[in-house]
């Protein structure tokens, strides 16, 4: 205890009016340990973004990773994501720099996962900054990364960009749908779910519908929807994947070719729409799919 009181570098925070000035000072200290401690104790506000953004270029990988951890957690809050929107162009630049380094260590993978998570959270609030920074193309190249965590976050961020019509159009133009269809069979369920989410949004536009049908995605989506979950925990974990797949099928059923394919498999979807033990959201999504498939002019 005595050491903590006499050694100023071990003090948790300064008090009163000295707190913020000391925090700024600690963030700019050459000693990595001091910067890390300051980052861990900071209560982020927009006025702290400039020194934090400077530390994204720090030579210490542990310091950069700590900055990304802070930003990723902050971005989970709507107010935090809003404060970080101005930083998105720099985050996209950092993502491009990661792409240029082929020899990556596991710690750099962790840094990239946090970076993608922040981009995803910000893009759910406003996709335009990432779209303006070549986001679809950059994220698309991450979909084939060997790390499932990077594939998962990249697909999640791409889904956020696909909410906009411009994002959907770019997904088609960048020829990402073949990769996304392959990811529907990824070993990681969250990668599958996020890929299904991008297909769900992209299938809203005519070009997306046609390309998905050309890629024969309907049987793949039906297979994902038809798998019966034996345990409640499995049902909970697969909910997003099933919901996105059902909504994607609803979009594809709006095209005559898609409707013809799905009419042949209608009993399967009717069962999901009527099952008493089914999750209410999944049941409603299945009912919508049945309604669209059976619609007649």
Automatic annotation (TrEMBL):
- The UniProt entry annotates ARM repeats at 175-199
In terms of domain of life, where is this protein from?
Eukaryota
Q: Which Pfam families match?
A: TPR_DNAAF5 (PF25757)
| Entries under InterPro entries matching the protein | ARM-like, ARM-type_fold, Armadillo, RSP14, TPR_DAAF5
| Sequence ranges assigned to domain Dynein axonemal assembly factor 5 TPR repeats in this UniProt record | 38-217
Report what the protein is called. Radial spoke head 14
């Amino acid at each position: 205890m005595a050491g903590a009181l006499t050694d100023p570098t071990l003090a948790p925070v300064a008090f009163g009016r000295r707190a913020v000035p000391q925090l700024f000072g600690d963030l700019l200290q050459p000693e990595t340990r001091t910067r890390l401690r300051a980052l861990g104790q900071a209560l982020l506000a927009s006025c702290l973004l400039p020194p934090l953004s400077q530390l994204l270029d720090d030579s210490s990988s542990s310091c950069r990773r700590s900055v990304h951890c802070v930003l990723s957690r902050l971005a989970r809050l709507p107010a935090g994501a809003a404060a970080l929107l101005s930083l998105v162009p720099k985050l996209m630049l950092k993502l491009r720099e990661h792409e240029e380094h082929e020899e990556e260590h596991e710690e750099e993978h962790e840094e990239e996962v946090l970076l993608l998570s922040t981009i995803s959270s910000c893009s759910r609030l406003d996709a335009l900054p990432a779209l303006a920074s070549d986001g679809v193309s950059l994220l698309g190249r991450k979909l084939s990364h060997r790390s499932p965590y990077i594939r998962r976050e990249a697909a999640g961020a791409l889904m956020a960009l696909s909410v906009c019509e411009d994002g959907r159009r770019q997904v088609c133009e960048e020829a990402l749908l073949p990769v996304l269809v392959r990811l529907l069979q990824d070993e990681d369920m969250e990668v599958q779910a996020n890929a299904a989410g991008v297909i769900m949004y992209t299938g809203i536009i005519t070009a997306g519908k046609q390309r998905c049908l050309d890629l024969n995605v309907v049987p793949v989506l039906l297979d994902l929807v038809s798998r019966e979950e034996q345990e409640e925990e499995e049902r909970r974990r697969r909910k997003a994947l099933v919901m996105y797949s059902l909504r994607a099928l609803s979009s594809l059923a709006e095209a005559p070719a898609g409707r013809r394919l799905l009419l042949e498999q209608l009993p399967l979807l009717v069962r999901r729409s009527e099952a008493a033990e089914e999750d209410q959201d999944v049941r409603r999504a299945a009912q919508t799919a049945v309604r669209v498939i059976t619609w007649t002019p």
